[in-house]
Amino acid sequence: MARSASARSSASAALCAVVLALVVAAPAAAHTALETVRPADGAVLAEVPPRVVAAYGTALAAAGPAQASGGGGARVAGAARLDPRDARRLIIPLAGGGPGLHTVTWTVTGADGHDLTGRTTFRVRAPSLAATLRRVARELRTAAAALERAAAAATAR
């Protein structure tokens, strides 16, 4: 019996050690980690997206600075911000830019107070001739319709 009491005592001590290790390790595992970013790193796109969205595994405390760089010329259009509907998501608005390589970098503060940096790089391909002609035709139709309205308004006077 003494042996089984000793075995139970050892098993209890081992169980306590495992539980203690899990409790102590839990805060370390709670660090915020980037789960997804859109557009995905390495994506090839037809045009510069209106925003980059970075999704983290846990809520973020604050959005930090963001910047866009590269030969494509996109720029950050306003401050990066946390999504008001989901504090795990950072939204970085973009404007301008064209074909070429674009890199967007940012800093956020996790709920644990640690600053984290993120980065995504995507390429915007040059539009095809057909796509360019469709865009120009659309713009010409819009301009022609505006001229027709202006002429009709001038004639009505």
Describe the structure in your own words.
The protein is of the alpha+beta class. The chain has three domains: 1-30; 32-126, Immunoglobulin-like; 128-157. 35% of the residues lie in helices and 38% in strands. Strands 1, 3, 5, 6 and 7 form a five-stranded antiparallel sheet that branches. Residues 15-29 have low confidence and may be disordered.
Summarize the structure.
With 157 residues, this protein is of the alpha+beta class. The chain has helices spanning 2-29, 129-155; strands at residues 34-38, 44-45, 51-56, 60-69, 75-76, 81-83, 86-95, 100-110, 115-124.
Annotation keywords:
157 residues; alpha+beta; 3 domains; five-stranded antiparallel beta sheet; four-stranded mixed beta sheet; 38% strand
Uncertain stretches of 5 or more adjacent residues: 15-29
Strand content: 35-45%
The SSE order reads HEEEEEEEEEH
User: How much helicity do the residues have?
Assistant: 25-40%
**How far do the termini sit from each other?**
112 Å
Largest sheet: 5 strands, antiparallel
Q: Classify the secondary structure makeup into a structural class.
A: alpha+beta
Secondary-structure topology with pairs:
Layout: H1 2-29, E1 34-38, E2 44-45, E3 51-56, E4 60-69, E5 75-76, E6 81-83, E7 86-95, E8 100-110, E9 115-124, H2 129-155
Parallel strand pairs: 2-9
Antiparallel strand pairs: 1-3, 3-7, 4-8, 5-7, 6-7, 8-9
